[in-house]
Design goal:
This protein is of the alpha/beta class and about 425 residues long. Helix content is about 45%, strand content about 10%. It folds into 2 domains: about 120 residues, no CATH class; about 290 residues, 3-Layer(aba) Sandwich (Rossmann fold), CATH 3.40.50. The strands form 2 sheets. It has an 8-stranded mixed sheet with strand order 1-2-4-3-7-8-9-10, with helices on both faces. Strands 5-6 form a two-stranded antiparallel sheet. It is globular, with a radius of gyration of 24 Å.
Length: about 425
């Protein structure tokens, strides 16, 4: 079962197997003795499936059901999947039992193929477990903070750190349970990335990044490990510790990273429970300049909101393809459901409102977005401009053809850490990180 859950469904061999089986089933269903009725039924099925797909795509676009614009590739796969399923359905009539069995199996196979293809286009759910919202990360034994090793006193870590010879080449990931003592918020286990320097016998105190993923989504450290292992390899094993808590609880729900009667105390969980747990259990530098709040999409909005509200906790904000404000993908419903129609209360939670009311002296903000993600690009530019006006030292970067998917996430992390490494004391500021 574990092997099945860990199966790579983006670019692993299983993807090729699924595509081949689907193509074989389609060819079998199409190759039969031609009759007038069969040809008409087959063409009608393909047209009906295509029309149904186009109507579905229009509804998804009109209602903003997923909060993002679907790519051309995804749209094509939706049409192909609907058409293939309808074609399989018509093969259930006037067929022998063998063809009916294969057609029945093909209906499921075509649906699976479409799901795999669309998921691969987004690229965020790499395994079966990710797609199902199941964590396959194992609980991790954390190195105990060494009280005898004091945090940095004026010197950047890159200039004083000497990696031991037995230091690992790569970091590791796992899960931790963060008690909801203050918030009562029900979250899934958090994920954590420990870089090579955190895994040695006497590890140094390191910077901390709290990363929030999108919605729907999982507290997944995979992208962090991919990017930071590469950075660590260039910097003697140095990288921040990354904690990926679950700000959603239920992946189908967006608690807005706020405290509301409807969704619970997500903000208190992040600002209270998560921060307190990190300080007590992780060997990290304590000051805001070495703490970063980061996020992707829904998590990007959360990162900006929390960074704006709590500059004494987080001195750095990394917003990757973030929404402009809580519930920006469905503001009317959010206003009615989470704020009981109180417009003033809703406006007060928006980052633009919070930023306009404060002046910041030592906050770094990095805003990244896919160069072909027009919807989120506009939002990123709006928030970046407001942050810059309030005193943040900002960077704006467009990930070439990143879309609103894995390309934008990986590219955003790479750019973000390129800016942050000198700030966090992990690289020489006079050289490229």
């Amino acid at each position: 079962m574990d092997a099945f859950l860990r199966m790579n469904i983006i670019d692993g061999p299983s993807v090729g197997v699924v595509y081949t089986l689907a193509l074989g089933a389609l060819i079998y269903l199409a190759v039969r003795r031609p009759t007038r009725h069969g040809i008409i039924a087959g063409v009608a099925a393909l047209l009906a499936g295509s029309v149904a797909a186009l109507v579905t795509l229009w509804i998804v676009s009109a209602t903003n059901a997923f909060g993002v614009d679907l790519s051309t590739t995804t749209s094509i796969w939706v049409i192909l999947t609907f058409a293939a399923i309808c074609f399989a359905v018509v093969n259930l009539w006037r067929s022998n039992w063998v063809r009916r069995v294969i057609a029945s199996v093909a209906i499921v196979l075509f649906a699976v193929t479409g799901t795999v293809a669309i998921n691969a286009d987004f690229g965020l759910d790499r395994t079966v477990a990710d797609l199902a919202g199941i964590s396959i990360e194992k609980p991790i034994a954390l190195p105990k903070p060494d009280a005898s090793r004091t945090p940095l006193a004026g010197e950047a870590l890159w200039s004083t750190w000497e990696a031991p010879k037995d230091q690992r080449a790569k970091g590791t990931t796992g899960t931790v349970i963060i008690p909801n003592t203050l918030s009562g918020f029900h979250s899934r286990p958090a994920a954590i990335y420990l870089p090579p320097a955190a895994l040695v016998k006497n590890p140094p105190a390191l910077p901390l990044v709290i990363m929030l993923m999108g919605q729907p989504g999982n507290p997944d450290p995979t992208s962090q490990k991919l990017v930071l292992d590469a950075f660590a390899a260039r910097h003697n094993g140095l990288a921040p510790i990354v904690l990926v808590p679950d700000q959603l609880g239920d992946p189908t729900t967006d608690p807005l990273c706020l405290d509301t009667a409807l969704y619970g105390k997500s903000e208190t969980f992040l600002v209270g429970d998560v921060v307190a747990w990190a300080r007590a259990n992780l060997h990290v530098l304590p000051d805001a300049a070495h703490w970063t709040i980061a996020g992707f999409s829904n998590g990007g909005q959360c990162a900006v909101s929390l960074g704006a509200k709590h500059p004494k906790i987080w001195g750095n904000v990394l917003d990757i393809s973030g929404e402009e404000y809580p519930g920006s993908d469905r503001p009317i419903q959010t206003l009615a459901q989470a704020f009981a129609g109180n417009t003033s209360a809703y406006l007060a939670t928006r980052p633009l409102t919070v930023l306009a009311a404060h002046h910041y002296s030592n906050t770094v903000g990095i805003f990244t977005v896919g160069s072909n993600d027009a919807k989120y690009m506009a939002q990123a530019k709006t928030v970046e401009a407001a942050a810059h006006l309030s005193g943040w030292k900002t960077t704006y970067f467009e990930v070439p053809d990143g879309g609103h998917a894995i390309g934008a996430l990986i590219g955003g992390l790479q750019e973000g850490y390129s800016v942050l490494y000198p700030r966090l004391g992990l690289s020489d500021p006079t050289t490229a990180p």
